[in-house]
Amino acid sequence: MSTIKYTKDQIATAIAILFHSIGLIGILFLKNSFFVAATPVNLLLMLFLLLWTQKEKNKFFILFTITVITMGFVVEIIGVNTHWLFGQYTYGEVLGFKWQHVPLIIGINWFIIIYCCGISTQTLLQKTINKVAEENLQPPVALKALSVIIDGATLATLFDWFIEPVAIKLHFWQWTNNHIPGYNYICWLISSIGLLSIFHFCNFNKQNKFAIHLLMIQFMFFLILRASL
Hints:
Elements: H1 8-30, H2 33-37, H3 39-53, H4 59-82, E1 89-91, E2 98-99, E3 102-103, H5 106-136, H6 141-169, E4 173-175, H7 182-201, H8 209-228
Antiparallel strand pairs: 1-4, 2-3
Helix pairs in contact: 1-3, 1-8, 3-5, 3-8, 4-5, 4-7, 5-6, 5-8, 6-7, 6-8
């Protein structure tokens, strides 16, 4: 009798679906604040799964991970304390311990978004990039860089726009007068371009099916919450 062997990607995807499903049920039907308060735990679990499924964790991947988490946290400190970036907003208590009025977990959230958007964009565009390379008999270096960075940053900004109403209702953060300024998204786009530039130029393995699955799971998670809350 043969045993079924599951890949890391399959196991990680199943775990992500399970935990996001439990969160949905708890938030929508049980109305229990425990499930919202467990958000930091969920983010840490998703980070662990992304690191677990990442192939060949070389020094460039480690550098990228630390840089994105750190820079994501720093831009939030600037944003919250000066209002120069993103607009006038404050973080609630849901996301856990804060330093300089910013939850420590927020840097990890930046990494998850940037990494998943970068992997997803590169994977989706790879066939087109390869076709251009075959036609021109040389790798389209500039095209690949612009496609991954710009398209990935656009996807990350779209994700932020998508989750904003849900995050406000779940008290992740609040905007002054409940007004989200347009330059919030401009700053998100610029910040994402910078971080995805690091993603593109850091030389590490960028094939991770789970990262694509996680982005889709989170999009579906916030879509349901956005439509239901």
